[in-house]
Amino acid sequence: MGHADQNAALAERIAAHFADSARLKVAAAQPLAGPIARAVEAMSASLRAGGKVLACGNGGSAADAQHFAAELVNRFERERPPLAALSLAADTSNLTSIANDYSYDQVFEKQLRALGRPGDVLLAISTSGNSPSVVAAVRAARELRLRTVALTGRGGGKTGEALGADDVHICVPHERTMRIQEVHLLVLHCLCDGIDLQLFGANS
Length: 204
Prior knowledge:
Rossmann fold; five-stranded parallel beta sheet
């Protein structure tokens, strides 16, 4: 295969990724809109009452947790007061000390027990739903009387099974990690936009 043919094949592969991602987003809009709206309501109610959102996840989901917290604390698309949010995946001293002294499975749970209060919301992100550290945090949240918004894929796994009746499950209907993560980012932006709308009204 010549260089031109290789470039053409690569461009075709890239275009296929765009098309596949777009198809999934369109297909997921209807089943996910309701859960996303319920998650917006849960987070908005907590923030309005003086609560906070605590986000956790591993790898790419850790980056998503930090991204979401930054959008609330700083701003999303409008000027408005800062909102209370914290990523449990951001403090390397906490993460490494808990993992070293106890178990990595407890890195989010122990922080949640220290920082979470009844009425707060846990945003638990796991593409497979089976991350032990995320599942442990979800179980702790129920014990501590925090509502959980779980952002998963692949059927939700053990995270979905650990949720209570008042929790919200946003499960992307796909098996492939990168596609799930792409929809997760869109969901997070929908949450940010919805929270701003609920708390501060339509943006003029």
